[in-house]
Amino acid sequence: MGAAVLFTGLVAGISMTSILATAVSVPLLVAVILGGVWGALVLSLDRWLITLPRPGHSLGRALWRAMPRMIVRGLLAA
Question: What parts of the sequence cross the membrane (predicted)?
């Protein structure tokens, strides 16, 4: 599970760096820094979302804890 979270953050950082450097024409150093920040943000958010569900809680509590995932999924789907 850890490798999947790490790989997601890495791919997000590389993608952001590539987009900033090519499509937006940001200088490479700035693109690398912003891509690294973006990758760290995605890594942190993904790790937090993965650790949210815990067994043994009520259905209402599980739905409440799943709400951030639903919001992120809705934003990404839009």
Answer: 31-50
**Length of the chain as a residue count:** 78
In the block, which residue shows the tokens 């590389």?
14
* Contact indicator for 65, 49 with CB cutoff of 8 Å: no
Rounded-to-integer distance, Cα 44 and Cα 4, Å: 13
Q: Residues 10, 16, 20, 21: is their CA dihedral positive or negative?
A: positive
- Find the angle CA(60)-CA(61)-CA(67) to the nearest 5 degrees: 90
- Residue 45's pLDDT is what? 84
Contacts (Cβ under 8 Å, ≥6 apart) of 78: none
Domain ranges of the chain: 2-77
Per residue in 22-63, pLDDT (tens digit) is 999 999 999 999 999 999 988 888 887 777 666 666 777 777
